[in-house]
Design brief:
- Chains A, B: GO terms for molecular function: oxidoreductase activity.
- 2 copies of one chain form a homodimer.
- With 360 residues, the first copy, chain A, is of the alpha+beta class.
- The first copy, chain A, folds into 2 domains: 104 residues, Malate/L-lactate/L-sulpholactate dehydrogenase, four-helix barrel (Hypothetical Oxidoreductase Yiak, Chain: A, domain 1), CATH 1.10.1530.10; 238 residues, Malate/L-lactate/L-sulpholactate dehydrogenase, NADPH binding domain (Ribosomal Protein S8, Chain: A, domain 1, 2-Layer Sandwich), CATH 3.30.1370.
- In chain A, 41% of the residues lie in helices and 17% in strands.
- In chain A, helix 1 runs antiparallel to helix 2, helix 4 runs parallel beside helix 5 and helix 6 crosses helix 7.
- Chains A and B meet through strand 4, strand 9, helix 8 and helix 9 of A and strand 4, strand 9, helix 8 and helix 9 of B.
Chain lengths: 360, 360
């Protein structure tokens, strides 16, 4: 079924306002979820709402807390998200970095005491909209088993990178692991199997039952009870296909987030503080030359790649192509919603006594 | 067989001096190759020498040309390598960035008109030796087939990231593709099969014959004759295991190198200019807190990861662990050398009438 993005936005703003977020913050939070659904990133759209509300009720998320700047230089920013939603501190940080980078060429921010921030691409796209290269990363709950390990330790740490191009920017946005936990969640909600080598059990055997994988992830991510198993690093189950590179990529994000923020590393977010950390970087390509030239040359490269010889029945897509195609289509036809999430939305609306959005 | 690293260094300095590099540049070039061999990265060690010499003889490498600074700000540096070896401009750029970052918190450099620069980790380790986070990247000859493509287009673009830790820094250093072309080259030289899904033919079938793969790579990387086939992106042959993430990672390096440098993208380095481009970034963690605390916390995380439950007969290693172990061992026992490279070294020595190093 589908829901119009305008109705989704209105509903979400109502829910967040009802949970004591400021009007401005409610609008931002709604926008990040609608934006993900429009881009076809259902794993990070409205299906997360029930989970966010659980964290608000548990006190993990503190809707009225204000963002605090702890340290600032002309090129850097250390921010305390103050246990509010990650989206709020992240949008704040990225707006600041854009100003700094336009003055000094590049700048970086670290956020501590944060929560889930939605899609990483939301923030790196803020930078590219201003003609800058944007990088956004976060750690997460522990979901990912390092190379050779039989238990989860790393987050499915997200990484986004954007670069100016036409007709839309280059947008790489995804978990550094083979898939995000959210992608497995969506398949489990829809009773579909895992199509690839994504998850392992406690003996590092690959499993394809999405619900079995989701059961493992729910334990490793949210409890101290480590039964073993988790999501694989990019590169799969075996060292012979260099899965230690995917492991390394995820570890780099751990260093830039939890370690630089002096917050929890992903492995410790299932106990105690539940805090996430984020890292952002913006670079101004104009210090090296003309912005239009860079965008034109990048666009020309992408056009050549899309036109390369390929296997029959497939298509070569540049990171961002699918998202922008989805965006324009879903703006017209409404965003996709699975039945379980629709039921959750009804329940949330009833509890708050607000209008249930129309599903079609 | 093995060769002592001291003799390797002396031999290499003699070769580079004989090919008209300055004494300082010869020492640097020798150091980068000895360093790779000591760390067990044979693909980027002395086995590259014959290839470098071919490029010197062809005029692709111009040993006497001086590095030129084209643009400079307090946070950035645009460098022209002036067709000399990539190592020379890269070490120059990284030394400059270290100074800048200590003053302003972070800085970046782009190099154009460059050549192969050895291992990326050599430069990011220069930054970490000064307490900074280091990032080093390069594009390369076209070797890698994008997701679904049946022909090579991307470089096996290298990426290194270093972070302070004990007893040695975190050093992630590798091709963004499933493996570097050099790794296939070494297996072909040793008549060994490819152990994983690394290379494809012109119909995107995985091939395991190293010499067949090397024959494909020699054509796609060095001639305009595109027969199809190449190296796979990290994530393997199929979209279902997210090989588009490996594709995205390689594309990011294309943007930061060839595009920002306004040089050739990897796809165009097999014709015309043969120029490579490099990108470097250094960050000072001290702007966010105490360096010792970061290194201590990173070290504690790595210790926990090494001690995780794992499959029998395996070991969990942190990026850098293997390299530093190799380094200390090979410093004692000498670096490994394959027969074909030993034969090449003898030939090079005879042509220059310099002493052949002792093999044992």
């Amino acid at each position: 079924m589908r829901i119009s993005s305008a109705e989704e936005r209105e509903f979400l703003e109502g829910v967040f306002t009802a949970y004591s977020f400021s009007n401005e913050d409610s609008a931002l939070l709604a926008d990040t979820l609608v934006d993900a659904d429009l881009r076809g990133i259902a794993s990070h759209g409205i299906q997360r709402l029930a989970w966010y509300i659980r964290m608000i009720k548990e006190g993990t998320i503190q809707p009225q807390n204000k963002v605090k700047v702890l340290k600032e230089t002309p090129t850097s920013l250390l921010v305390d998200a103050n246990k509010n939603m990650g989206q709020i501190a992240s949008a704040f940080a990225m707006k600041n970095l854009i100003k700094k980078t336009k003055q000094v060429g590049l700048s970086m921010a670290v956020i501590r005491n944060s929560n889930h921030f939605g899609t990483a691409g939301y923030y790196s796209r803020m930078a590219v909209a201003e003609g800058l290269i944007g990088i956004a990363t976060t750690n997460t709950r522990p979901l990912v088993a390092p190379t050779n390990a039989t238990q989860a330790f790393l987050g499915s740490n997200a990484f986004a990178f954007t670069f100016p191009a036409s007709p839309h920017p280059f947008v790489f946005d995804g978990a550094t692991s083979v898939v995000s936990g959210g992608k497995i969640q969506v398949l489990a909600k829809n009773n579909k199997p895992l199509p690839g080598d994504w998850a392992i059990d406690g003996e590092r055997n690959v499993i394809h039952d999405a619900q079995a994988a989701e059961d493992i992830l729910a334990k490793v991510a949210f409890t101290e009870h480590q039964t073993g198993g988790g999501v694989l690093t990019l590169g799969g189950n075996s060292e012979k296909n260099s899965n230690y590179k995917g492991f390394g990529n995820s570890l780099i994000i751990e260093l830039l987030t939890g370690i630089l923020a002096q917050g929890s590393i992903s492995a410790d977010t299932n106990t105690g503080e539940h805090d996430f950390s984020q890292f952002f970087l913006t670079l101004d390509p104009a210090v090296f030359g003309d912005l239009e030239t860079f965008a034109t040359n990048a666009t020309a490269m992408f056009t050549r790649i899309r036109g390369l010889e390929h296997t029959p029945g497939t298509q070569i897509m540049i990171p961002g192509d699918r998202e922008y195609k989805n965006y324009h289509e879903n703006l017209q036809q409404g965003v996709l919603l699975d039945e379980k999430s629709a039921a959750e939305i009804k329940e949330i609306a009833q509890e708050l006594e607000i209008t249930v959005p129309k599903f079609k």
